[in-house]
Amino acid sequence: MQTSWISSLVILFVYFGLHAQRKEVLLFADSLCAPGLHGRGYVNEGDTKAAAYIETTFRNIGLSPSNGTYFQPFKFSVNTFPDSCRLTIGTACIQPGKGFIVHPSSGSAFGEFMTKELSREEVFQDDVQLSTYIESLPTKCVVVVNSTLFKGDSLKMVRKRLQQIANYRPVIELVNNKFTWSVGQNQQSYAYLQLQDTLYEKPTSVHLAVHNMFKQNHQAMNVMGYLPATKATKKTLLVSAHYDHLGRMGSVCYFPGANDNASGVAMLVELAMRLKEKKKRKYNVLFVAFAGEEVGLLGSAFMVKHPPTPLKDIRFQLNLDIMGSGEEGITAVNATLFPKEFRRLVKLNKKINAVPIVKSRGPAANSDHYFFTEAGVPAFFIYTMGPNKHYHDIFDTYEELSFKAFESLAFLFESFLLGF
To answer: At what angle are helices 406-418 and 2-18 packed, to 10 degrees?
Structure first.
């Protein structure tokens, strides 16, 4: 018993010695977060530049194109903020991303605007009365609503009203919670901002310089790399991670998207390098870096409708997101749908001791596994848990990633994939 335990330990030691954490993979993740890729969004071709960088990386690893190409293009509409995004109160220029953010569907507004604060009663007028009242306000007037006074369903209703108001006048919503930005696929007529309430102090006017640009047919690209099995087979494993993020909110502020999801793409690259080294592979492996995830899982939805390999031939999908920590373990979405595969993952983790816990979670439409599962492809979506809580904010930087469990998880995922 003792000899067996020592032998296992030696095997693991040799394995990790041979596969020491690749610095180039971490540098790859760092590069995805660089200002030159503009948050991998829809300003300054950030997502296009990221796609080209990933394609070059796939080539360098030795992955082949899928059906003759590394790219799968598709189009969608998206609201962007390419340059001016400023809010000035008195002499104070409020810092974007820290002091204020624009609503993803915000329109534009320029100039000095008087402030008009709405009471609870005014906000909850019926739609006709509210529209008539807002239209009666001076053209150079910004509507201010303190949403910190509302909670739950009332808050949801207030924000719905504010989006309606933003079709008639600019809006400033006062908040006191962490900013969480996203991407919009429509636009209001005027600017809609969220401002930290401590920065407001009841001014009589504010200066806005917010410019949105709505793109009707933005072209994005899924990036694919193919690794054939040792012996010819149609059966394929799909390993995926989305590379897009939120992009820029004006010329000054951008969202690096380190944990979400430069870290996941780095794990994708790490697994591609590891599996490429294997002399025996039972299944083909298709590695996909999805675009358009932050807009609503658009890249994966498109691929399900236009699969590069028949969906019936995909044995399993491993979708990776938020791979930058792991101190508190990992969560497997779809674990309850595929208990046999989940038990095997848990058993492997106990043997390898990659992370403290592998947590089970049911199905959820929260990443690029979803439409594949809906189409009959078995899949896990796995994300790490840890102290890093930066999400959809400007603080999700490479420097905040611990990569605490990155190497051990790479070993776990490699073992899991090779077990099919």
So the answer is: 110
Look-up of token digits 């919503």: 173
pLDDT in tens, the chain (420 residues): 333 433 343 333 334 433 444 788 999 999 999 999 999 999 999 999 999 999 999 999 999 999 999 999 999 999 999 999 999 999 999 999 999 999 999 999 999 999 999 999 999 998 899 999 999 999 999 999 999 999 999 999 999 999 999 999 999 999 999 999 999 999 999 999 999 999 999 999 999 999 999 999 999 999 999 999 999 999 999 999 999 999 999 999 999 999 999 999 999 999 999 999 999 999 999 999 999 999 999 999 999 999 999 999 999 999 999 999 999 999 999 999 999 999 999 999 999 999 999 999 999 999 999 999 999 999 999 999 999 999 999 999 999 999 999 999 999 999 999 999
Domains of the chain in sequence order? 2-77+216-418 (3.40.630.10), 84-210 (3.50.30.30)
For strands 379-384 and 314-320, give the pairing.
parallel
Cα–Cα dist 382/112, whole Å: 48
Bridge partner list, 319: 240, 381
Task: Indicate whether this model's pTM tops 0.90.
Answer: yes
**CA distance linking residue 385 with residue 48, whole number of Å:** 30
45 Rama sector, left if φ>0, alpha if ψ -120 to 50, beta otherwise: left
Going by their DSSP bridges, the two strands 71-80 and 284-290 should be labelled as: unpaired
Counting every residue written for the chain, the total comes to: 420
Neighbours of 60 (CB within 10 A): 11
330 sits in the region (left: phi over 0; alpha: psi -120 to 50; else beta) called: beta
Phi-psi region of 16 (alpha: psi -120 to 50; beta: other; left: phi over 0): alpha
